[in-house]
């Protein structure tokens, strides 16, 4: 271990991480290199408590269904229902089973019970209503947007027309849709009409923003915007699911991260008067560089949500990449970034990426993990992160 890497590393703490960030940061992305390992959401919880107590943060956004998260946020705000209910209904992708996520909601609600309403914490999901095997029907988002507008504007469509075009949800959510485009309703004549309606409703929402905000509330108008983004995003995603081209998986990836980026930008705007936002997701969704993966015999590349939102808000976005050393028999080779970091004396460390890049030398090797679900650090792009967080063993 070179002296330069030791000098670049500090034992993990919230303060050690934020010391590496620009004071202009409004959105801090904390990545994780793999899902399902509690060490990373536990680290996130520790960081979030520090950010709330010392840095003025008032919200956190997770890689989870943006509509399901409304149930989790209602619990955090002190609403009726149990923590078990919030965990069951407030997360997607199985994340409701995470003890660290459970502790996050418990702590946020307890915090909110002892602070003024203006200082209460908010919980967001920033993913679309998507799972690996498909996407939700657009009914919930589109009808919620319609009902909001219909309460204050004369619309050209009836609710019955909308329901008729949507049809049963099963036509949108068949379990074989991901592998069989013919099962998808995304390019039917009804779906095409729904995309036009969703676009027109979204335009009406924007055009009547002053009236609608005054007639309802800023929070209600923001929620309508969430439904609008989700409805239009889902209909685009379903159209891509119906594509019969062998390249259909690429658009699914960039459409998903596009929805993520739009949601993050909306969260940052909403939270601007209250404080910065912490976002937690896989490194591949938050890094500034192109993400990539091997899937269905193809090498897919797309711009992540972090890259997209970073291009919009500039240096108000900061990204901390997280990685680890050993996982059972999977031990990193000495010449890789993870191998070099494993010699640090800290069980968890925060490292200055620029100094780490210098210490790695001109031709560092990239770790090849035994587990395909883990994305190792790319030596060529480490210096594009604002911080690196290293966990020696998981």
TrEMBL record:
One of the GO biological process terms: response to antibiotic
InterPro entries the UniProt entry points to: Emycin_Estase, Hydrolase/PRTase-associated, UCP036794_erythomycin
Pfam families: Erythro_esteras
CDD domains listed in its UniProt record: Ere-like
Gene3D superfamilies per the UniProt record, alphabetical: EreA-like (biosynthetic domain) (3.40.1660.10), EreA-like, domain 2 (3.30.1870.10)
Name recorded for this polypeptide: Erythromycin esterase
Organism of origin: Streptomyces mashuensis
């Amino acid at each position: 271990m070179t002296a330069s890497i030791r000098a670049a590393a500090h034992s993990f703490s919230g303060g050690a991480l934020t010391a590496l960030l620009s004071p202009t940061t409004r959105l801090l992305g904390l990545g994780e290199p793999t899902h399902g390992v509690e060490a990373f959401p536990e680290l996130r919880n520790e960081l979030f408590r520090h950010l709330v107590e010392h840095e003025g943060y008032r919200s956190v956004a997770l890689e989870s269904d943006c509509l399901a998260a409304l149930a989790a946020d209602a619990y955090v705000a002190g609403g009726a229902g149990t923590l078990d209910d919030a965990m069951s209904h407030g997360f997607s992708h199985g994340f409701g089973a995470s003890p660290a996520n459970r502790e996050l909601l418990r702590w946020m609600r307890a915090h909110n019970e002892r602070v003024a309403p203006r200082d209460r914490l908010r919980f967001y999901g920033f993913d679309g209503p998507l799972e690996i095997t498909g996407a939700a029907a657009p009914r919930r988002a589109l009808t919620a947007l319609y009902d909001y507008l219909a309460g204050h504007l004369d619309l050209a469509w009836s609710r019955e027309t909308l329901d008729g075009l949507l049809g049963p949800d099963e036509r949108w959510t068949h379990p074989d849709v991901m592998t069989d485009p013919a099962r998808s309703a995304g390019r039917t004549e009804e779906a095409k009409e729904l995309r036009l309606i969703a676009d027109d409703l979204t335009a009406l929402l924007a055009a009547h923003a002053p009236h609608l905000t005054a007639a309802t509330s800023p929070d209600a108008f923001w929620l309508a915007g969430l439904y609008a983004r989700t409805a239009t995003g889902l209909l685009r995603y379903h159209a891509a699911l119906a594509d019969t081209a062998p390249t259909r998986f690429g658009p699914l990836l960039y459409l998903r991260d596009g929805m993520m980026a739009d949601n993050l930008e909306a969260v940052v705007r909403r939270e601007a008067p209250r404080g910065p936002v912490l976002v937690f997701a896989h490194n591949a969704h938050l890094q500034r560089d192109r993400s990539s993966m091997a899937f269905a015999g193809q090498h897919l590349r797309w711009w992540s949500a972090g890259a997209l939102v970073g291009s919009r808000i500039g240096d108000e976005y900061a990204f901390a990449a997280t990685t680890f050393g050993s996982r059972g028999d999977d031990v990193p080779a000495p010449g890789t970034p993870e191998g070099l970091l494993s010699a640090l004396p800290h069980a968890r460390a925060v490292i200055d990426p620029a100094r780490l890049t210098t210490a790695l030398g001109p031709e560092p090797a990239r770790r090849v993990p035994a587990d395909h679900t883990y994305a190792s650090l790319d030596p060529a792009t480490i210096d594009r992160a604002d911080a690196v967080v290293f966990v020696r063993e998981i």
